[in-house]
Design brief:
Strand 3 and strand 4 form a beta hairpin. About 30% of the residues lie in helices and about 10% in strands. It has a domain of about 90 residues: Ubiquitin-like (UB roll), CATH 3.10.20.30. The protein has a 5-stranded mixed β-sheet with strand order 2-1-5-3-4, sandwiched between helices. By secondary structure, it is α+β, with helices and mostly antiparallel strands.
């Protein structure tokens, strides 16, 4: 296949490279952008480890071709922290030991970003439903749910909603700054849309 030249933004940085039309977005992010925080698990769009934000919406990067992301604005787990300061969601996962092997964690973090952006004060049931598209083989999910609830409280104390890129955990003197997101129609379907009406997949996620 003849490679195509594509340009996209990841965590605020513009990347231009040539990619074969069959190359997945996940592989492009890892190999061409050098951002290996996005993990590949099942490569069938089931486990959620490859979850990123594309124009403000969660997508499975293993199910997208890189050429489909031409001109898109992407956010990966590398864009959450501000240097050595963790994003409030990352800090909550750390504080509540919401990870063990950590392989699925990037996908959970990016899913949590979208969840708390759309629903800043979710109930426990809403948290479990929001995370149902991500699978973890280590934690039993309980601490992940606690971490999301704690992150929601931290972000609720900030003057605005969370910022996707570089929003470090707010201290008493500083807080996360809001940044508007403009979702656009893409060939990919967001996790939230993919989960709707698919109770079978939800049963594979956190137990209620």
């Amino acid at each position: 296949m003849t490679p195509r030249r594509i340009t996209l933004r990841v965590n605020g940085t513009t990347y231009t490279a040539e990619a074969e039309p069959r190359k997945t977005l996940a592989d492009f992010i890892r190999e061409d952008c050098g951002l290996t925080g996005t993990h590949l698990g099942c490569e069938h769009g089931v486990c959620g480890a490859c979850t990123i934000l594309m124009d403000g919406q969660t997508v499975r990067s293993c199910l997208l071709f890189a050429v489909q992301a031409e001109g898109a604005d992407l956010a990966t787990v590398e864009g959450l922290a501000d240097g050595d300061r963790l994003h409030p969601i990352q800090q909550a996962y750390w504080d509540h030991h919401a990870l063990q092997c950590g392989f699925c964690t990037p996908g959970f973090l990016m899913t949590t970003v979208e969840l708390l952006h759309d629903n800043p004060r979710p109930t426990e049931r809403e948290i479990r439903e929001g995370l149902a598209g991500n699978l973890c083989r280590c934690t039993g999910y309980q601490n992940i749910v606690k971490a999301v609830a704690a992150a929601a409280e931290t972000l609720a104390d900030a003057p605005g909603a969370l910022r996707v890129t570089g929003a470090a955990a707010p201290s008493r003197a500083t807080s996360a700054v809001a940044a508007p997101r403009k979702p656009r129609a893409t060939p990919a379907t967001s996790q939230r849309a993919r989960r709707s009406g698919k109770t079978a997949k939800r049963r594979s996620g956190p137990k209620r």
